[in-house]
Amino acid sequence: xxxxxxxxxxxxxxxxxxxxxxxxxxxxxxxxxxxxxxxxxxxxxxxxxxxxxxxxxxxxxxxxxxxxxxxxxxxxxxxxxxxxxxxxxxxxxxxxxxxxxxxxxxxxxxxxxxxxxxxxxxxxxxxxxxxxxxxxxxxxxxxxxxxxxxxxxxxxxxxxxxxxxxxxxxxxxxxxxxxxxxxxxxxxxxxxxxxxxxxxxxxxxxxxxxxxxxxxxxxxxxxxxxxxxxxxxxxxxxxxxxxxxxxxxxxxxxxxxxxxx
Length: 261
Description:
Layout: E1 5-7, H1 12-18, E2 24-27, H2 33-38, E3 46-49, E4 59-62, E5 65-69, H3 74-80, H4 86-93, H5 98-101, H6 106-112, H7 119-126, E6 129-132, E7 136-138, H8 139-142, E8 143-145, E9 148-149, E10 157-163, E11 167-174, E12 181-189, E13 194-199, E14 207-208, H9 210-218, H10 243-260
Parallel strand pairs: 1-3, 2-3
Antiparallel strand pairs: 4-5, 5-10, 6-7, 6-10, 8-9, 11-12, 12-13, 13-14
Helix pairs in contact: 3-4
């Protein structure tokens, strides 16, 4: 590790002011940022902690919409959404291990947009709204590609709003060492539509499987997708699995998620 400044603001305004400094970077749970700093893949001049800011922590429900503040950790989401949104609670409960769940935050995960992160699949399937200090961004417009989002310089994720579905389920095929999904699928059923968010599979990052959404909206059973196939052209291929394998997993996990709803 190298030398850097550490700033721990007490309010969101103080954090935003500190982030105006050159080479300043926000620090949420640090589950991705700290390891990349240790490898010197990222070398900010100062870290501005978003933890300990009361206005960035908490879960609330209004008009069947679940709002989660950006610095809320995974463990809190597991506990506080268990009854209101069990599908999301189960997703959060499968992230990493207890140490990760008690440190990592939803805002950090959303902002980092790791191609194998879990929350982006739920955000896409639910057509969630990403809230920042400056604006609100639809999930479809927020995730722009692998490790790429619509966030601008000095903009941070302050929360995420999820329309609560009638039923939802998340299925992931884990990479055993990291517990990241080799492929993961979140299915959310609403009165007039079904959302299918896919993570861990595509070179373009998280995406919605529109063809499956259309089929499942008409017939919400695993049989609805039996004749569909996911093209392997843009799928990730690495030592853990080929592009064709990941494409096959997308269909299998979608079917499992629907059956589990």
